Amino acid sequence: MGGVIEAKDQGAAGHGEDALKRLTALVAEDLAQCNRLIVERMHSPVALIPQLAAHLVSSGGKRLRPVLTLGASRMCGYEGPRHVALAACVEFIHTATLLHDDVVDESTLRRGQASANALFGNKPSVLVGDFLFARAFRLMVEDGNLEVMRILSSAAATLAEGEVLQLLIQNDLGTTEAQYLEVIEGKTASLFAAATRLGAVVADRPEAEAEALDSYGRNLGIAFQLVDDALDYAAEQEKLGKTVGDDFREGKITLPVLAAFHAGEATEQEFWRRTIEERQQDDSDFAEAQRLMARHGAVAKTIARAEAYGEAALKSLAGFPDNPFRHALAEVVRFCIARAR
Amino acid sequence: MGGVIEAKDQGAAGHGEDALKRLTALVAEDLAQCNRLIVERMHSPVALIPQLAAHLVSSGGKRLRPVLTLGASRMCGYEGPRHVALAACVEFIHTATLLHDDVVDESTLRRGQASANALFGNKPSVLVGDFLFARAFRLMVEDGNLEVMRILSSAAATLAEGEVLQLLIQNDLGTTEAQYLEVIEGKTASLFAAATRLGAVVADRPEAEAEALDSYGRNLGIAFQLVDDALDYAAEQEKLGKTVGDDFREGKITLPVLAAFHAGEATEQEFWRRTIEERQQDDSDFAEAQRLMARHGAVAKTIARAEAYGEAALKSLAGFPDNPFRHALAEVVRFCIARAR
């Protein structure tokens, strides 16, 4: 299936980061405006708020979600200014979620730098997250479109549900693949789907196009998260920009773990029960987890699943006009998959 | 000044809790609808969410803020159904804030029961708080009025700013009274002001009335928080329904502390520096703090300030029609002050 993703788009810029660069370049001016708006709206007389927010907002994030909103809007022929604020909304919701995630996961690294909670403490991270949520809603209200607000407030609720569900299945090897997919659809894909759907809404396109862009974003988001979960066992720390093995150490249930557990012999299952369910780990266990995964192709299986979702995302673009934005959005699918190679 | 508050309203139901009961009784039917809506909108397929939310939502809270929204709407002559959902919004924002507060403060008690974070852990408390925020915004969007959304999203941002500012002045005896007032205006009074302002907005009353109700709620909220801060040093645990001495143990800067510190001799200032700034406390220190406060009338001073804000709240009601709702809203001012007696 990966072949289709690679072959489909003839003018592809290449693999990995390059595959996102084309879309980013196409919306460069919009994105510059969006970045200015983000900085402006992070402002508060309470100086710690912009300080802490800036740490995250300017720490080398790819702005993937706002770029998707900008690109989807342009693909739909939108020429006005509103998509810039909507893209900033999406990024604020995402940033707020990252702040709360890092508190919940007790992470110390984010994008290769010390995470905000490690640097500033958990308390300001929780509260600045709340501030950014509130600012996101304020921005939507200024835009004034009820459909936009419905989409984003629903996505924010679904996102929180996905995060809670993730907590509930943590350390539980009895988790089904369906439950795992429900988690990543909630915690990751719902905001991707909202980010891209907004493109059709802001351009006042018919509901069928909004649905198609929702499907593109949702499938892309699932693919993105599957690859992220694979990378936690596969990549080197520098490449990933986050602490490799974090998921393992937290006993997080992800597809590579489920795949290796179900394919494993009795002694291997014992290993996973001890390390993931009981969280009894020593220094050599992560290497052993990687070895068992390699043995059963667990990471490769996960990436194959990501490729299938990537295919579905590409199909959702089929009905849109053949313009550079559509091609660049197709390349983003490759970007999400290629990170794993 | 307390005399005015006590004398003004002839048909007063009495002190303390009774002073809130009249308004609660007047809006009883609306409140029952609001409670049903709250339960309905807490629902999620992720069962932990309604479980955790219900722990807080049904743990004997007085529903002060939604009752204010319902009462203010009725005072303004509103006869429609929209105020019920707006009151539920306000309660959701408040509940989300409480969940995050308890995580930030590491509280173990809330309204005399184990707090949600103590019972369910910090992680679900952070995430369920996010879920409730998102649901609050979803409810507003369903209401569809942009002015309502502007008011509530701004209040939510100001609230978070107040909480961050509170963190920043924690343990700092150099905090000015003005900074302390800025904190409580942000973290408490901004949502009170929004809750009451909504009454004029939903009833489509002129901006001057919205301003007057904003001022009523804001002054009431400041009075409420001043009394709360006084009670942490004055009340018995059962009466307050929260752990007495929490503020002291956290080194929280509140008006009673600032009053006792500034009035104290050198050795007393040394005591406050050790216990509040350095947080070096032993078991007998809280009793000593209470003794020093009594010596300088620090709690009484705080309550006198609350009474002054209560007076201002009452004045803001002067221009409204002379109806039972106005009288009951006036009594709520007494309720907020009388808790301290």
Question: Could you describe the 3D structure shown?
Answer:
Chain A is mostly helical. The first copy, chain A, has a single domain (2-338), classed as Orthogonal Bundle (Farnesyl Diphosphate Synthase). The first copy, chain A, contains 18 helices and two strands. The first copy, chain A, has helices at residues 2-8, 17-26, 28-42, 48-57, 64-75, 82-105, 116-120, 122-143, 146-169, 177-202, 207-234, 237-240, 246-250, 255-263, 266-277, 285-296, 298-316, 324-338; strands spanning 109-110, 113-114. A two-stranded antiparallel ribbon of chain A has the order 1-2. In chain A, α5 (64-75) packs antiparallel against α18 and α14 crosses α16. Chain A is globular. Residues 6-15 of chain A have low confidence and may be disordered. At the A-B interface, α6, α8 and α9 of A face α6, α8 and α9 of B. Chains A, B: InterPro entries: Isoprenoid_synthase_dom_sf, Polyprenyl_synt, Polyprenyl_synt_CS.
**Oligomeric form:** homodimer
Approximate helicity band of chain A: over 70%
CATH homologous superfamily of chain A - what is it?
Answer: Farnesyl Diphosphate Synthase
Beta-sheet strand percentage of chain A?
A: under 5%
- Are there runs of chain A of 5+ residues with pLDDT below 50, and where? 6-15
Structural class of chain A: mainly alpha
Pair of chains with the largest interface and how many residues each contributes? A-B, 41 and 42 residues
The fold-level CATH name of chain A is Farnesyl Diphosphate Synthase
Sheet with most strands of chain A:
2 strands, antiparallel
CATH class of chain A: Mainly Alpha
Average pLDDT for all residues of chain A: 89
Cα-based radius of gyration of chain A, to the nearest Å: 20 Å
The general outline of chain A is globular
**In total, how many beta strands of chain A?**
2
Number of helices of chain A: 18
Report how far apart the termini of chain A are.
Answer: 15 Å
Order of helices and strands of chain A: HHHHHHEEHHHHHHHHHHHH
Q: Main sheet of chain A: which strands, in order across?
A: 1-2
Domain unit count of chain A: 1
